[in-house]
Amino acid sequence: MGTIVYLNGQFVSKEEAKVSIFDHGYLLGDGIFETLRSYGGVIFKLEEHLQRLFNSAKYMMLALPVSKAELADLAYQTLEKSSLQDAYLRITVSRGVGERGINPDFCKEPTLSIIVKEVPEYPPESYAVGIEAMIVGVRKISHESLSPQIKSCNYQNNILAKIELNQRGLLEGFLLNHEGYLAEGTVSNVFIVKNGNILTPSPACGCLEGITRQTVIELAQKELQLGVQETQLTRYDLYTAAECFITNTIMELMPVVNIDGRVVGNGQPGALTRQLHALFQALARSER
Q1: Set 151, 162, 194, 222: catalytic member
Q2: How many CB atoms lie within 10 A of CB 247?
Q3: How far apart are CA 229 and CA 252, in angstroms?
């Protein structure tokens, strides 16, 4: 069947999926979301994604219209109706329809949607030979203003960074925080390998504690007996890394072989990057 959408109690086609222009998600970006992926009909790390969604809702004082168990059931119902085994899912909750102004009390009913469609494919060469990246000029919004742990529908910070990447013809780039330390990619978490150690920005630097990020940390510890240091990383650390890779739900692990014109390591995807990606794919396919 392909793309199917659950929207406020109904399963509809892509063409039928419509929300009001008075929805505060559309007007103000007042909403939260989670991006998920299924492998062989099983939604990977569903419980972790739903827990983060409910945490985001609590932070934003946004009342979800269903329980966690009900939402899990709806996600699987939508996946089943799509007839897809390997699929992209996005769960979005907006504040709902309201009057003019920013007051969330104007919105009486949240809007809940679940999109299921085919997994977007990255170019195979991105994994085989790696990608080039850059440090963008846009800085990550301070965690003192907005917690980076919230998957907010307001992505203006990241979109401005993506415009820079588009102008350079690059897939991904890195945002520094207001202190000059690495925070994250525009849509990814970042890891480097240096002196045989795996390092990644600490959440205190402004990165989202991604589900794939955490899975990689656990795989490194359990399968490779390698600790992962969550720490402060600078431009220098990126430029002098032996390996670099980025992670998110859809791309899984992707090698980075050039940053701001500096070749990473020997200019090829690193051994630990390839090993961790293979372990991740094996885990994702084995969970039932």
Answers
A1: 151
A2: 26
A3: 20
Q: Is the pLDDT of residue 49 over 90?
A: yes
Q: Which domains does the chain possess? A: 4-118 (3.30.470.10), 124-286 (3.20.10.10)
Q: Does 18 participate in catalysis according to the annotation? A: no
pTM for the full model?
0.94
pLDDT greater than 90 at residue 2: no
